[in-house]
Amino acid sequence: MNNSKLSVKDLDFYYGDFKALHNVSMEVEKNKVTALIGPSGCGKSTFLKTLNRMNDLVEGSKVHGTILYDGEDIYGKYDIIQLRKKVGMVFQAPNPFAMSIYDNIAYGPRIHGIKNRKVLDQIVEKSLFQAAIWDEVKDRLNKPALGLSGGQQQRLCIARVLAVEPDVILMDEPTSALDPVSTSRIEDLIDELKKDYTIIIVTHNMQQAGRISDSTAFFLHGYLEEMGQTETIFFNPSSKKTEDYISGRFG
Amino acid sequence: MSILLNTQTPVTDISIEALVNSEQRKADTHYRKSKRANTLATITLWSAAALTLAILVYILGFIIYKGFRSDNILETDYINYGTIESPLPWQSDDTIMIVNSDVRLKEINGDNLESLLKGKPSNWGNINEQDLDVIPYVLDTAEGNFGKKTIIKNDVESIAAAVENQVGAFGIIPAADADKIDGYKLNVIPVWSLGIGVSPTVLEIKDNKKMRFIDGDMLKDILRGNISNWQEIGGIDLPITLVIPPAGSYEYNAYLELAGISEDELPDTGISTGNPAEYIEQINKLDGGIGIIQITAAEANDMKTLKYQYRKTGRNIQMWFLFEEPKRAGRVGGVSSIIINTIYMVLLTVLFSTPIGIGAAVYLTEYAKQGRLVKIIRLGTETLAGIPSIIFGLFGFIVFVDYMNLGIGLLSGTLTLTLMILPTIVRTSEEAIKAVPRSFRAGSLALGAGKWQTIYKVVIPAAAPGILTGVILAVGRAVGETAALLFTMGFDYRRVENLNTSARVLSTHLYQLVKEGISFDRAFATATILIVIVLAVNVLSTKLVVRKY
Ligand SMILES: Nc1ncnc2c1ncn2[C@@H]1O[C@H](COP(=O)(O)OP(=O)(O)OP(=O)(O)O)[C@@H](O)[C@H]1O
Ligand SMILES: [Mg+2]
């Protein structure tokens, strides 16, 4: 499968003694949007965070199995900084730093060694533009980012991820803290971004999953219950549990 | 009510009603009680707050008031009465004193003027707390004993010119030549020369009573003839014998002015005499005698004088106090070098303590395993923060001054202060760092930043306001610290030249001023500067903190 960006095989994940993921295997296709759905506590966030190794920060966590990114094992020799640069992450609650809008976007590139002001200017403009927020902030780049609205902050955080030129973008319920208008702007943005990026998004919103994703993975109790084309999962699931969940019978 | 009814199990109508009534009553009492408790709490809390505020305002207000206004009761041999043209006993004609306009002098008494002319204090310090050399000028016709440094001129104009141009210069000229100094920029100073002569009988001790001093009001009453017995103003039971100076004399005119009366209103009880020698003799001889007299004349005739008590008010702290160097144990001059020393001390202390404090806080919050060791360290810092500063001073003396051989000086002092305020900085910085949202760290790490990069570029800047608050708090403590510096920093009030020189700062200066009884006015002025510095630092820092994000 050459089209596969991330390939997960037999992944087990433990928080201490608690096994949060059981034997998960998944192929994530390039330039597609993959939605992760499932009831609360089923391990969606945990799975997402294994992909950029943010789970490493949790003390006592353990990973078994392999995750290949472009064919390379990210839990092997792969440099963690390179990984996080390539596999960016947008969090549930917008989390801009207490800096200016400009510095927020320039933060990533600076960390990765870009100092030239002109280059940074370009990156900042391009990222904000891509994240569809340029017009709203271009006159106030030096104002504090925390002064933006929630929806603007979330797009800023997406721009901040784009600024380090990632390949894959992980999003953990990026619109759950936002109003419908901001949500639909972000959905449009995701649609736009998938031309250039591979996107994995956790969502509790079935409609959202249906609207924006190409394939959908349904998690249950730490297992990957079913995965496939979004249409198939929604209209013709093979698992009874998936059908129950989709039709709102539990969760 | 209906809800209440519904919840009841069905019983007879009467018992339901009774139940409802009793419930209602209970609810009413409960409501009244809670309302009363509420009012009581509000009043109590309000009183506590008001009391705190009142105490604060009172303390600050008192110190600052005393800092800006001096208000002292003084006792001297001289009455606070002076004229521009005044008789000097060793001069046959009336004299005028002129002073260079840089000399801060409002009036002078005869003794001081005489000794200045003799060159005895060669510095103005003793007279007006100003560190300036005295340069006396007199005419060649002037009579009296002058010091070697006294410069003699032939004409009034050259004295006036010299006094105008030479800082610290003063001169005496005959009153007849007053018009000759018109147009020169100099000050004319009234000279006090009068005192209160009394008969020795007045000063006798009887029934445990003795006349000690007279104030302006008492003097006025006596001179107006309103008081007839010394008993009335705290003396012994002895009739007052008021002697009126020879008409037309200097003393006579002063009498009228001090009593606030005209010639016709002179009291009948007063004994008048036309002869100066007789005047002095009568004051001396008559039981209970009193009269206004030249202090020098009293001395020459072995006459007793009563102390004169008066209230001297004026501005306390003034610009010169900030900009002049202290001299003679701080009795003279201002506090300029002491302010500079204080600034050095604060800067050095901040320089030492901030990096260490923030570093320790970062380690404790971000790196150290949150186990028992960290708990012990925390307990330790908290304990240290509560230790009396004098103990830090002792420690600093033993370790820095003695063992490390740094000597008493700026470095030992600031190191001691650093130790003292470090716990505060660590604690507040820790709190500030902990308050930075976890999501900031996650966001940074997810972008590929390292741990240190995240801390340095995201966490610390976000915690900066809190950290700064802690540092300011600590600086406030350091500025006012005295005990920790007593054995470590020394008391040299000159500007420090290097890290090892002993240095006096505002707080230790204040301590010395009070301990050595040098001057309460100066102590309050110094305290005011200290308070203003602390306030300024606070305001400045809040401005800084609110700056951007
Ligand atoms: N840091 C942690 N330490 C221990 N257990 C954790 C930790 N984080 C998550 N878990 C547990 O792992 C399981 C999966 O959690 P996870 O956050 O992945 O669920 P989720 O599917 O994202 O749920 P939600 O939809 O509510 O966000 C849960 O039972 C949770 O309690
Ligand atoms: Mg989650």
Automatic annotation (TrEMBL), chain A:
Annotated ranges, domain ABC transporter: 6-246
GO molecular function terms listed in the Swiss-Prot or TrEMBL record: ATP binding; ATP hydrolysis activity; phosphate transmembrane transporter activity
GO biological-process terms attached to the record: phosphate ion transmembrane transport
SMART domains linked: AAA
Membrane topology: Peripheral membrane protein
The keyword Disulfide bond belongs to this UniProt entry's keyword annotation: no
GO cellular component assignments: plasma membrane
Predominant place of localization: membrane
SUPFAM superfamilies associated with the record: P-loop containing nucleoside triphosphate hydrolases
Keywords, in A-Z order: ATP-binding, Cell membrane, Membrane, Nucleotide-binding, Phosphate transport, Translocase, Transport
Localisation: Cell inner membrane
Origin: domain of life: Bacteria
Biological role: Part of the ABC transporter complex PstSACB involved in phosphate import. Responsible for energy coupling to the transport system.
Protein name as catalogued: Phosphate ABC transporter ATP-binding protein PstB
Origin species: Candidatus Thalassospirochaeta sargassi
Gene: pstB
Automatic annotation (TrEMBL), chain B:
Family label: Belongs to the binding-protein-dependent transport system permease family. CysTW subfamily.
Subcellular location: Cell membrane
Protein's name according to its UniProt entry: Phosphate transport system permease protein PstA
Transmembrane segments: 40-65, 343-364, 376-400, 406-426, 458-479, 523-546
Domain of life: Bacteria
GO CC annotation, single: plasma membrane
GO BP of this protein: phosphate ion transmembrane transport
Annotated ranges, domain ABC transmembrane type-1: 339-541
Pfam families hit by this protein: BPD_transp_1, PBP_like_2
UniProt KW Transmembrane helix keyword: yes
Keyword terms: Cell membrane, Membrane, Transmembrane, Transmembrane helix, Transport
Gene Ontology MF annotations: phosphate transmembrane transporter activity
